[in-house]
Amino acid sequence: MDLASIDPVLLIAALMVAATPILLAAIGELVVEKAGVLNLGVEGMMITGAICGFAVAVETGNPALGFLGGAAGGAALSLIFGILTQFLLSNQVATGLALTLFGLGISALIGQSYIGVKPPSTTDLDLPILSDLPVIGPILFQHDAMVYVSIGLVIFVWYLLKSTRVGLVLRAVGENHDAAHALGYKVVRIRLAAIAFGGGCAGLGGAYLSLVRVPQWTEGMTAGAGWIALAIVVFASWKAGRVLLGAYLFGGITVLQLNLQAAGMEIPVEYLSMSPYLITILVLVIMSADKSRAALNAPASLGRAFHASS
Amino acid sequence: MKLTSLVAGAALALGLASMATAQDDPLKVGFVYVGPVGDYGWSYEHNEGRLAVEEAFGDRVETTFVESVPEGADAERVMTQMALSGHDLIFTTSFGYMDSTIAVAEKFPDVKFEHATGYKRSDNVSTYSARFYEGRAVIGHIAGKMTESNVVGYIASFPIPEVIRGINSAYLHAKKVNPDVEFRIVWVYTWFDPAKEADAAQALIDQGADILMQHTDSTAPMTIAEETGILAFGQASDMINFGPTSQLTSIIDNWAPYYVARTQAVMDGTWESTDTWDGIEPGMVAFAAMSDKIPADVRAEAEQMIEDIKSGAYHPFTGPINKQDGSVWLAEGEVADDGTLAGMNFYIEGLTGEIPN
Amino acid sequence: MIRLEKRPEPSRHWAYATPVLAVIATMIAGGAMFAALGNDPLVAIRTIFWDPLFNEQFAAFSRPQLLVKAGPLILIAIGLSLGFRAGIWNIGAEGQYIVGALSGAGVALAFYPLEAWFVFPLMVLGGALGGWAWAMIPGILRTQFNTNEILVSLLLVYVAEQLMASMALGLMRSPDGGGFPGSRNLGDYPAAYNDELIAGTGMHWGVVAAFIAVIFAYILLNRHIMGFNIRLTGQAPRAARFSGVKPKMLILFCLGVSGALAGLAGLFEVAGPAGQVTIDFNVGYGFTAIIVAFLGRLHPVGILLAGLLMALTYIGGELAQFMLGLPAAAIQAFQGMLLFFLLAGDVLTNYRIRVGRTEVA
């Protein structure tokens, strides 16, 4: 065993990159759930974003356009879910699962001609002086732009929910859609916007995988990242700041586990891989056992269909 | 009973005519894949083999495939339906299809089955696998010569004999030319998860590895190596697109010669149940072009080793080799037998850490 | 302006018509997709929906296979539908399925190679108990701490998957398996093998159990006070409480039944068609069953039909792959479309579409 060979600075830098796709998807899903909608199709939206982003980047040669394409792809797919659940009042759980199935299929179809293609590369930040600082440099100033975008999105969502009128309305819709409707808010429109935002974020996360993290296109390449994003939202008890913490924790456990192995330490991989989920359940229990706090966090209308006349 | 007599009657009635149509009918060859053909790894290479069969025989064959078939009941159903729909030869290309293949083959004695990487055979089931460890011996040698940090990173999938054999072979030959070399092994518990493989590659690089080897299917580790400017060996396919400066060479699964030969055997009526474990010599294990970064002398040694393995002059597991605990596995000059290799579940001396279970 | 108006009673007429319409709509949209991929849409549709049932060459085989594929889906979906009707959301059936398979197979492997009549019944008990216990975790957390059961049951799926990987590589790994992951094949252990009851019919105990579950659920929902309580809780939770329904008991009952049925499905699968515990033994039955439950409108007979329809698209999809060279991805997208249309069609059952200006109240 050679624990000294693990450099904590590199470890933190690596976990930030590893966590970015799930962070992006989770922050989007947070907004969706805050609006009272449970979209279990994150995996499908991520993989669709991954191929749309990849295709656009390859065709245009521009990774930035690729990310826009990824977001657009994810958002477009999410609108199928939006129309079904908001206008046609289908069950959200079942529709979300169907969305994942459809997304996995459609992405593979689009991606057939992109197998084995290398995308244009995304450059890392390289600030003179700052990037070369010891410790802080690698952690804060040497990443690709999307890492900062993801953190920026977290701050944006945090501010949006906490301090803006839009956030207030969104939360009102998620808490009690009938009351929100009675107050004259357009419940369906607000939820559709939230769903599209969530889809866009998931698409960005997928595009990050196919354009930066891996970068390549292969069928099924998200390999369950969307489900982890769902768990993170719960872990975060629907708070933007904690989504960041949760994503870095999940990403961190994976990266740490691999680093410990590389250092030659014996670790029960399966049990370590379970631990984030068990921790999340524990957090959930603690949170919900305290009734006054639970009421503040979990959106009360989560997963319930809304119909104006009901 | 009824069906048999009916078929017999029809055969009698049609006589030579049916023989003639049987000759004109293209041979139907089916392939069952465990992953999508778009994985650019294991299933992709089997599909390349299928395309080679089409190329070789043109109108005389008709090939079909089903991808992403889960092991177990689903695989058994797909194979049965292939057999029922008139396939003459069916390749089942995952270890987990073993019991299903045997079960279906029993019901269709006239259909030939070929099961990849398994060990159960019957009259109409052959098995085939590749001696990838021969390839790993060569890349181990190159890695041992070329590492400057003396740390080689190894991304492993599951602790099964195939993977352990590869680690042992690569380590043995790296150690031979560089006694200070150290292998860092990360088990990712997946054959295919690009993000996780990328994370594993990053972890190994962060801990000083300057050459990566992988026994997983995605090109992610190669891309990470390219980005960080270190060296790496590809797996399954030529990954030069993803590591134009990093890839030293790649061990390629080349199923085409075997698939073509077996299809030919069925056409000729010479097909028999066999146990094939081919290596470099018949071309089942192939290499991507060696990088210019490999010094001329190292390349010459590597090519010599390839020749020696081909000719049978050298076996990668030739004693003296001790097991990890120091006990003797192979005495001086002794060559490992296939049985031990097939079930290899121990590290050789010098490797650190334990095989997880 | 188009608007929806809730029907006082769900329309029976539309409840029967919408699934048919949905299948037709899928055939049109899917056909367009197949045509775009360069296939003859009519041939593709015929291969998926017709050939598994009536093709001369292999329908004799694939018809019974429908039962094998649909069995676990129906069994799980029936259990889930009880909870769904009462507003109790167990979406972790996949995890309960895995744990049921593990505990049932564990019983078999513990007795191996004993040939005794009681091995299989004990396995069945083990499977049901395993699934039940796994579902009791979200159940008890919900009743004791008011923790959201949707999320806990989902999270436990990942835990179960890791547990299974650990078992397949460790404790349950077959000593005769040449070091490969995976347990002994129960097909080689007659006392534990869940074989076809009548050769060539595809009927194994899991399929029988699925049919029994359908009948049992039908009687429960229509004739039994528990069924009445379940329906009442789903429709009017407050009224249910006033009429003496104990919500906690109901939660534990619904989660317990769905967990036990999912566990049974896992056991029957591992002891029969699958044969062994492997790293990726689960193929998503637990999740697909959620969709099946909704496609069947949470009605036992509907679920039976929905399970068979789902199975048909799987089997037909495989045929389309090797007969027409359609990629697996196209089949997935096609199934996705079918589900979208079926879910969307449900609106016609519960709502009336009104065209025109907003009515004055």
The largest inter-chain interface, given as chain pair and residues per side, is: A-C, 49 and 50 residues
Residue-averaged pLDDT of chain C: 87
- Spatially, the strands of the biggest sheet of chain C line up as 1-2
Average pLDDT of chain A, rounded to a whole number, is 85
For the termini of chain A, the CA-CA separation is: 64 Å
Overall, the morphology of chain A is globular
Instruction: Give unreliable regions of chain C as ranges.
Output: none
Gyration radius of chain A, in Å: 20 Å
Query: Major sheet of chain A, described briefly?
Result: none
Estimate percent helicity of chain C: 55-70%
What is the succession of H and E elements of chain A?
HHHHHHHHHHHHH
The percent range for strand residues of chain A is under 5%
Give structural notes.
Chain A has 310 residues and is mainly α. Chain A has 13 helices and no strands. In chain A, helix 1 runs antiparallel to helix 9, helix 6 (145-163) crosses helix 7 (165-175) and helix 6 runs antiparallel to helix 11. Chain A is globular and about 60 Å long. The model of chain A has no long low-confidence stretch (mean pLDDT 85). Chain B contains twelve helices and 14 strands. Chain B has helices spanning 2-14, 16-24, 42-57, 73-84, 98-107, 132-146, 161-177, 194-206, 220-228, 256-268, 296-311, 338-342, and strands spanning 27-32, 61-66, 89-92, 112-116, 125-130, 151-156, 182-187, 211-214, 231-236, 247-253, 275-278, 285-287, 321-322, 328-330. Chain B has a six-stranded parallel sheet with strand order 2-1-3-4-5-11, with helices on both faces. The longest helix of chain B has 17 residues, at 161-177. Residues 1-22 of chain B have low confidence and may be disordered. Chain C has 14 helices and two strands; from the N terminus they run E-H-H-H-H-H-H-H-H-H-H-H-H-H-H-E. Chain C has helices at residues 12-36, 41-49, 51-54, 59-85, 93-111, 119-145, 149-169, 205-223, 225-235, 237-242, 247-271, 285-295, 300-324, 328-350, and strands at 2-6, 351-355. Chain C has a two-stranded antiparallel ribbon. Chain C is globular, with a radius of gyration of 22 Å. The two termini of chain C are 16 Å apart. The chains are: A mainly alpha (310), B alpha/beta (357), C mainly alpha (361). At the A-C interface, helix 4, helix 10 and helix 12 of A face strand 1, helix 7, helix 12 and helix 14 of C.
